[in-house]
Amino acid sequence: MADHVWRATGLEVLEVEKYQYNYYVTVGRNGKPLQELLVFPNGAIQPEPQSMMWLGQPMYIDNATALAIAKKWLDTYFPGTEAKEVYTFPGYYTVHFTTSDGDMQMNSISGYNGAVIFHKWHGKHIQQPDLFIINTLKKLIETLLLLFLLLFLLLYLFRRRTHGTPIDMCI
To answer: Residue 92's closest CA among 23, 26, 38, 40?
Structure first.
């Protein structure tokens, strides 16, 4: 999934979460979140609704105010639920929370006017792959391939030096 999104967007995949109806993907640069995407089972990628509406808007609301708005919303619609994580995007915030039945969900808060959108289009949370492990394994494989190529090159140069070439033998 992460490779598919990276190839399609050219952006670093920071987070992937699998839900009942789609994948939720956070992309960015240098570890900084830039946008949220939906990836459907057929591979189609599209921005999340809040990304389409609020991305790049001026932000008059700070992180603490966005969190207070999210908590008030959660108290109204999911009493007893606590906000787990707040992610800042250009123009808005997304808050992850766990419901009383253990389901992980999200809402987004406009940084411009404090409007709230609940991410109901995802369905139930299924899993969150550990991108750290995936990225570490990818880097390990890349490093091993580079070492293999370097070893092959060194062996080739050593063989050429010790056995010479047909031209060297004629001189």
So the answer is: 26
